[in-house]
Amino acid sequence: MLAMLTRSMFLAALVCCAVGVARGDEGDEPIDAGAATAAADDKLFENRGQSHLDEAVSAKLAAENLDDLSRVIKLCERAIDGGLNKENREFAEKLMASALFQRAQAVSAAIFGPAQPDSRWREMRDAALNDLSRAMELDEQAAMYLLAVRLESLPGGSRKRAMAALDKAIDLAGDDADTKFEALMMRAGTGESPEKKLSDYAAAHKLRPQDPVPLRARGALELSLDRPEDALADFDAAIKLDPDHAPSYEVRGMTLTILKRLDEARESYARAAELAPKSAAMFVQRAQLSLLTEQYDQAIEQATQALKLDPQMPGALLLRAQAYARSERSEQALADIEQVLELQPNLAPAVKLRALVEASAGKTTEAIADLERIVREEPRDLETQMQLALLYRTQKNYTKALSIFDAAVAIDPDNWMLRYARGDALLSIGRHKAAIADYNAAVKQSPRQSGLLNNLAWVLATSPAADVRDGERAVSLAKLAAEATDFKQANILSTLGAAYAEAGDLDTAKKWVRKALEIADEQERKALEKELASYEAGKPVREMQREDQTAGSSAGESAEATTASPPSSSALKR
Questions:
Q1: 165 contact partners, CB below 8 Å, separation of at least 6
Q2: Of 474, 468, 463, which Cα lies nearest the Cα of 545?
């Protein structure tokens, strides 16, 4: 303190001397010595922290580790607290922001870099975010916000803060194309609105028109949005920019498969395999296409090639199992499935496939046990519930089948496949009104499904209950079903005949049954001949399916009464 006062007094003396020198012509205003002394004191105070700032600069230039950066930060704090003029204070704040950001980067590298993250990564994440927050307050930069996004994207982070940081990074990037590109790609990858994501990918592509990455990413998004044509255009453009990128050909093949351009898909997969001959995934995709086109031996060969490259690849084993199953080689299929389950016990797709193979091999009880287990673990798996209900139906356990259908429909009442399947089950036990209600609900969702249209038309044409039959609508529905199958399915032509018979046009009914007989197989002919005989006798067909109901009817509703009628094969209608 004494030293400071002495220096202040010395400055005052200098000012007093300056007063005498400054006096000019007579009449000039005298200089206020007190004010000058105060101004000099303020100037001295403003730069009292300069020595700390000078030391901080030297320390920053030599910094090599976290301790060095921490020392820079502390020296900057002392310099600011000690007092700096406006220009030096701004410099000190920028220097401290830089050191804080650098420290946050170093800590983040310790989180993201190692294959096995430090067990204290959560505390490290919080420390890095705290440094970034302080740095942003002093000198916010787009790169700081991008690092904050990565840290907030870790488990326990805030998605809201991450998205806000991305918006801020894009705003701050300005003319920095690289930073803006990175921020746009990150926001597109983490956003929720598909249209905004597409917009961000488009903006990123505009910044780097020769970079295929935004095109690939946008194509993948378009594919997930069921826009395969747009996706294909992006994949093609990406391949033009990078013609040796195997995954682009792979996903292009997937897109072409969706578009049913199968020859082009096969060529694209072949090119992918040429570029990545050691990739098991490429062989799997080719096998998938072969399976889709019912080339089962080829699918088996390609899946086997994938397994030579990766012997424990569950996807390849499951795909080969499917090919074995579809080519009626159930033992080989089950062997592959068991191998998958050894690798990944209780893997749901493998258990489901095993159930289907068991069911096709007549092992219904085993198949039901597998599907029951899946449903217990995944009570909202509606596809498996439907498969399970259908298996119970094959056992004529309609109470169990309908209870499963009812539970599934309660979860998704607009699922046309569930309503269709439950309608068939209800039809099988003669509950025509309830079956029609389900069919009607299904038709609203899928108005062109030929099997659904056929079954609804059949019950409207042949039910013994007069208040259920509707010949005119049955004809309309049966025509739609026949058109959808090019008039080439005997069972649907049979339904069209039954509909005309109910509408009072027996001549047309006989015409369509005769056409059905022309294309029918031996199993169908017997039922068709009985139908034709009925029409020639002037009688429309009446059918009430009343299969053995170990389950009975659902509570509160009884099946409609049956009446005597010419027999017909229910199998023909299915």
A1: 145, 146, 148, 149, 152
A2: 463
Specify burial of residue 417 (Cβ count, 10 A radius: 0-12, 13-18, 19+).
Answer: middle
In the DSSP assignment, the letter for residue 323 is H
Contacts 24+ apart (CB under 8 A), 221-228: 221/188, 221/194, 221/197, 222/198, 223/251, 223/254, 223/255, 223/258, 225/194, 228/255, 228/258, 228/259
Q: How many CB atoms lie within 10 A of CB 362?
A: 10
Indicate the helix (H) or strand (E) that contains 20.
Answer: helix 2-22
Distances (CA, A) of 553 to 255, 433, 462, 522: 46, 13, 21, 34
Distance CA 458, CA 190 (A): 51
pLDDT in tens, 119-162: 899 999 999 999 999 999 999 999 999 999 999 999 999 999 99
64, two tokens: 């090599």
Do the Cβ atoms of 357 and 333 come closer than 8 Å?
yes
Of 70, 75, 69, nearest in space to 56 by CA: 75
Say whether 537 sits in a helix, a strand or coil.
Answer: coil
Convert the pLDDT of each residue in 404-442 to its tens digit. 999 999 999 999 999 999 999 999 999 999 999 999 999
How far apart, in whole angstroms, are the C-alpha atoms of residue 474 and residue 509?
12
Q: The tokens of 281 are what?
A: 């995934």
